[in-house]
Amino acid sequence: MPKFRKKPVEVESVQVRWSTWSEVCDFVCGAINESNPARRISADEASDTCGEIGPDFIAFDLPTTHSELATFRHGDWVLRDSKPGTFYPCKPDVFAATYEAVTA
Questions:
Q1: C-alpha span between 63 and 70 (Å, rounded)
Q2: What is residue 16's predicted lDDT score, i.e. its pLDDT?
């Protein structure tokens, strides 16, 4: 059976946390707005509290390349997709196992 190796790919990403909230908002370029607001969730609903103190954490929806909305929760990574204005979520454990930081 032939085997294949996944090509290395660099992605732009930011983790959803209170400490990176302004960076998240800049990264998604206005996709979080009055008609598509972020909402507060409990620690039980968060993917990871990232060591941040609650009681409230963050969740929001963003468009995907398949014209669907995906829910992003506190602790998830927001990855920019190839189609402009679209994103996909990645759970923290999957992100840690799949990606490593790129150094200049």
A1: 6
A2: 98
Domains contained in the chain, number: 1
Q: What integer pLDDT is reported at residue 53 of this predicted model?
A: 94
pLDDT digit string (tens) for 30-62?
A: 999 999 999 999 999 999 999 999 999 999 999
44 phi and psi angles, rounded to 5 deg: -65, -25
Tell me the CA distances in angstroms from 34 to 31, 39, 41, 89, 95, one per residue in order.
10, 11, 18, 21, 29
The mean pLDDT of the chain is 93
**Domain range holding 69?**
13-98
Phi first, then psi, for residue 68 (nearest 5°) are: -110, 170
In a domain, 81, yes or no: yes
| Residue 8 resides in a domain | no
State both tokens at 62.
Answer: 């963003």
